[in-house]
Amino acid sequence: GFRMGIVGLPNVGKSTLFNALTRTAAAQAANFPFCTIEPNVGEVAVPDARLARLAEIAKSAQVIPTRMTFVDIAGLVKGASKGEGLGNQFLANIREVDAIAHVLRCFEDDDVTHVENRVDPVADAETIETELMLADLESIERRLQNIVRKVRGGDKEAVQQERLLKEAQAMLEAGKPARLVEVDAEDMKAWRMLQLLTTKPVLYVCNVEEENAAEGNAQSARVAEMAAAEGNAHVVISAKIEEEISQLEAEEAEMFLSEMGLEEPGLDRLIKAGYGLLHLQTYFTVGPKEARAWTIPEGTLAPQAAGVIHGDFEKGFIRAETIAYDDFVELGGEQAAKEAGKMRAEGKAYTVKDGDVLHFLHS
Ligand code: GDP
């Protein structure tokens, strides 16, 4: 599955947010197994109103959402890249995530100490990014040394690696994150394998005071501007509200939300933003036993989409029977869609679309 790492300076609201995420997940546990894996790792359901709609039409006995993993990565402070204290472990944790959710303190509260004694989310973001850049530089130097001999020996992979590492190094030495390096399609795989921290997409999570949850505030507006300039994403959220909501029953939670002027929980927006940031999309499998959502990257071909369910589906792929979500819903189910000629047979070259309802035929 896809993993988002939650990072941020101390006292910005990371734990509050992570606890809200996992408590919400725990509340869904009845039809949603494997929620909490480790104390700092939680799986959450990706909210998608389409799934319930499909299940209703097909009278599915079970509804199984697709999931996203959140990892609470504590311990990022100035100097983390030097490997002091928890630093190293923490950097190793970041290497393993697909994207970073960077929580920024956008709330004023004299009772909550700020490590730098001021509220400045843009400066905080720079502090963290600097640590990540330093960590990347250090690992690049180490790796360049490690491959010297192979490069001299003319090892093709090592030569490619060296070239990419040097491009990243030049970017970082210019004070910029490695994600700004322009990488050719044929280098993309090797580039991703480098797992540089500053190549991960970032979702800035602006943690604001409860009364600013709907509109944001001046600080979150600054973050929005920064995110847009970087090509990253941002969401405005009140970790405290999310904490409160996570303790309420569904009905109460809805009332509470509308009182706050919010259309949906911030956590839902956070998860959806993460999904968008990673260019992920959803397809569905629907039957009387279960209606289920599956996550794939945009542009995934049918056999690889089948492989998400089971490796054998990919290996033995014959074809996919496909109904678009809108057709399924408008016509009122699989049989009706089939009769209306809206069920297509697609082969190995088919690019799965968001919302496709699929059956895979395999050997
Ligand atoms: P972490 O160190 O980043 O994990 O931060 P915590 O989640 O432990 O939060 C630090 C403190 O800030 C706690 O006392 C929280 O209750 C408080 N806090 C978190 N979010 C908000 C907020 O939006 N507004 C206010 N006033 N306090 C908050």
UniProtKB/TrEMBL annotation:
A GO MF term: ribosomal large subunit binding
Report the residue ranges that make up the TGS domain in this protein: 279-362
Q: Which Gene3D superfamilies match?
A: 3.10.20.30, P-loop containing nucleotide triphosphate hydrolases, TGS-like domain
Q: Which cofactor does it need?
A: Mg(2+)
In this chain the OBG-type G domain maps to 2-257
Q: Which Pfam families match?
A: MMR_HSR1, YchF-GTPase_C
The name on file for this protein is Ribosome-binding ATPase YchF
Species classification: Bacteria, Pseudomonadati, Pseudomonadota, Alphaproteobacteria, Rhodobacterales
Q: Which family does it belong to?
A: Belongs to the TRAFAC class OBG-HflX-like GTPase superfamily. OBG GTPase family. YchF/OLA1 subfamily.
Q: Please tell me where ATP binds in this chain.
A: 11-16
Which function does this protein serve? ATPase that binds to both the 70S ribosome and the 50S ribosomal subunit in a nucleotide-independent manner.
Arranged from A to Z, the UniProt key words for this protein are: ATP-binding, Magnesium, Metal-binding, Nucleotide-binding
- Annotated Gene Ontology cellular component terms: cytoplasm
Q: Which PROSITE patterns match?
A: G_OBG, TGS
